[in-house]
Amino acid sequence: MIRRTKAVVALLGLTATIALVASSTGSASHDDFRMAFVTDIGSLQDKSFNQLGNEGRIRVGKQIGISTRVYVTNKAEDRLPNLLAAASAGYDLVVANGFFHAEHLDTVAPRFPRQKFVGIDVTKFLLPSGPSNYTGIVFSEHEGGYLVGYLAALTAKRTGGKQVISAVGANAVPAIVKYISGYIQGAKKANPKIKVIANYANDPTFSDQAKCKKVALRQIAQGSQAVFQVAGGCGLGALSAAKEKKVWGIGVDADQSYLGAHMLTSATKKVDLAVVIMTKRAHLDRLQGGVDFLFNVKNGGIGFGKVSPKVNKGDLAKANALKRQIAKGQIKIKPTIKF
């Protein structure tokens, strides 16, 4: 575990360089470069993870003038066929969005050694064959969870009443576990006595809003003042419950403040930025294989979105100060805890 952690952390200093290289539109290794983006299940319009990645695809295509295509994964059985279709079609770079692509990337990448493969939320350590044409993208979701948990707990403390907040996850996948683990730790930092309820909707589709709404309503009945959705499209149901019951909602991955005045803030994860950066590097033939790239608070890959104007300015200032401390490495957050 220590060896793996060091392998990822060693890449921290590279992201600033990546951003500089990515901003360039210099000559590519070849003019007919093409990129394919393979979604995970949960809808292309999930308003978070898949939608962000696809927005990155569209943006980079326009920025550097390349041909791109999205392959939509409607069900789990589509993952492998979609990866094979993209690779067989000759796309120079294939970006797979989501942890559950790991097994299939380990099958496909070695079969197409002249093409590049990138996996969002898929560390290289999940590919036992160790293909040299594979690059992993990982995020410090626990940092984003920590920030919104801290702000939610400060807001609940200032409001008074039952000191309870909650989180709804779709399933116990690594990214979701990290988000919720950080959320709990951040809340306890702000108010050690606060109760944090965390439940899974057990939605393998990541799109069943009714399941997440049911879980959120149960949490609100137990006194939750803020519901953090960590469930993609399913989580929109949790935010709907928060709106109906007039408690705070907290978005995930994308800035979901546009959903209404009930939104406290969102834990942001720049999936779109990762897609843009990796594609530009591949276009310039500068995408390193066999490594993981880490996106976190320090390099702008993780943070929190727009905050409700109803939030106390002093509490927001504390959250921003905390963010700076995390970026400087002054606060250590456990990626996972038991809950």
Taken in chain order, the helices and strands follow as: HHEHEHEHEEHEHEHEHEEHEEH
Report the β-strand fraction as a percent range: 15-25%
Query: Order of strands across the biggest sheet?
Result: 2-1-3-4-5-11
Structural class: alpha/beta
The count of helical stretches stands at 11
Poorly predicted ranges (pLDDT <50, ≥5 residues)?
Answer: 1-28
CATH architecture title of the largest domain: 3-Layer(aba) Sandwich
CATH class of the largest domain: Alpha Beta
Terminal Cα span: 21 Å
Biggest β-sheet strands, sense, barrel: 6 strands, parallel
Mean pLDDT: 92
**Total count of strands:** 12
Number of domains: 2
CATH topology of the largest domain: Rossmann fold
Shape: globular
The helix content, as a percent range, equals 40-55%
Helix-strand layout with pairing:
Elements: H1 2-9, H2 14-22, E1 34-38, H3 49-64, E2 67-71, H4 79-88, E3 93-97, H5 102-108, E4 116-120, E5 134-139, H6 141-159, E6 164-169, H7 174-190, E7 195-200, H8 209-221, E8 226-230, H9 235-244, E9 248-253, E10 263-269, H10 271-283, E11 291-295, E12 302-304, H11 313-327
Parallel strand pairs: 1-2, 1-3, 3-4, 4-5, 5-11, 6-7, 6-8, 8-9, 9-10
Antiparallel strand pairs: 10-12
Helix pairs in contact: 2-10, 3-10, 6-7, 6-11, 8-9
Give a written overview of the molecule.
By secondary structure, the protein is an alpha/beta fold. It folds into two domains: 2-139 and 270-295, Response regulator (Rossmann fold, 3-Layer(aba) Sandwich), CATH 3.40.50; 141-268 and 309-327, 3-Layer(aba) Sandwich (Rossmann fold), CATH 3.40.50. Helices cover 40% and strands 19% of the residues. The strands form two sheets. The chain has a six-stranded parallel sheet, with helices on both faces. α2 (14-22) packs across α10 (271-283), α3 (49-64) runs parallel beside α10 and α6 (141-159) packs antiparallel against α11 (313-327). The two termini are 21 Å apart. The model is unreliable at 1-28 (pLDDT under 50).
